[in-house]
# Entry
Amino acid sequence: MEWLTKFFESYPVFLKGMLLTFELTAVGIFFGIFVGLLFAFLKISKVRVLEWIADAYIFLVRGTPLIVQIFVFYYGLTSLNMSAFLAASLGLAFHNGAYIAEIFRGTIQSIDPGQMEAGRSLGMSVKLTYRRIILPQAMRRAMPPLGNQFIIALKDSSLAAFIGMYELFNVATTFGSNTFDYMTYLLIVAVYYLILVFLFSVLTRKVENRLAVSE
Amino acid sequence: MIKVEKLNKSFGDLHVLFDIDLTVNEREVVCLIGASGSGKSTLLRCLNFLEVKDSGTITIDGEQIEPDTHDLNQVRTRVGMVFQHFHLFPHMTVMENIIEAPIHVKKIPREQALREAKELLAKVGLSDKENVYPAKLSGGQKQRVAIARALAMKPEVMLFDEPTSALDPELVGEVLATMKKLALEGMTMVVVTHEMGFAREVADSVIYMHDGRIVEVGPPEKLFGNPSEQRTKEFLDSIL
# Structure
């Protein structure tokens, strides 16, 4: 009962934290998709230098902890007078971009080469065939792993607490240290994360179903 | 219409076409026959530059086409192609499949593209399938849509790469009937096929290929009835 009381007492602050968590994730994913698409195309470009750049990027991101990346962005960007929000969301985009690139590369390459040939045989350019024929199909196949990646990004956004973002996790630990009752507030914040993740999975499933007409 | 001279093509160390000479006249139907691996599909794919030749010349409608000097996308709008495995676009309806290239490549107004697509669908007997996705069609229906899709670009020549080889036997007839109709309308066609009945009935000229070379060319009565080459005879004996 005491937990419920504290839940309802604290919700205005948590809702603000939830909004920030959502914003960090949304901006991170939005740019992450562009970064991912760019590096996916570098990897399938068959141009050795471009492939090498993409490999180096993926190697860097996978080989270092996200917290290190966020701090590098934080100290790098704030020295250029950019906000901590920008540092955190760009850090998330940089990080997720690598995983999203691998998702897109996989689904683009999974499309039957006959689709490219059919497009070409009708006089479509490679670029037009990618845009009109290959990518729409690859996007649909990318939705399940992409949804998964979005959920990981959502939870990873909690690391922004360490550069002073007052998002969900930071709200919880602040309440905890003020009241010496960490456990209660950690269990409260877990509920907020569960709600967010639930909403995300419903959303991605909706998109998936909308794209599912063909297969 | 199409003139090929001294065409050579290799994939790495594998030489698949040797000094191919081929002439296809306007309104003519030419069938390419031969065992798998004989190079007939590769030859067909060289004709619309899905494969780029190593040497030799390809002349289409009096114009010698070279990859360095010609916009191959533009050339391909003049040479339609139908594939063994259809390759319809699965995320688009039948209608969208057909109007895709006319609208986005030829920049034809949507209304006009839709009107022409309807005529083509009527021609291949699939007017009722306009808004259906390819996944809901039988193999024979898919191939007829693929034919309509290629025709929508108003090509001067149509290439068919084993158009009935992936079909259940009972569906072969409807596709061959569509092709025959096309031939009777005077479409210039090059057809790689194992359907000897079709070749005999529709072709003006039949070409037998073996190991990357043209062994024999002739009218179907001659080539099927009284082949002059021993290898042609052996091939025909093995399949008939």
Summary: The two ends of chain B are 32 Å apart (CA to CA). The beta strands of chain B are 2-11, 14-24, 29-33, 55-60, 63-64, 79-82, 157-161, 188-192, 205-210, 213-218. The interface with chain A takes residues 48, 50, 73-74, 76-77, 80-81, 83, 85, 87-92, 100-101, 104-106, 133-135, 149-150, 153 of chain B (CB under 8 Å).
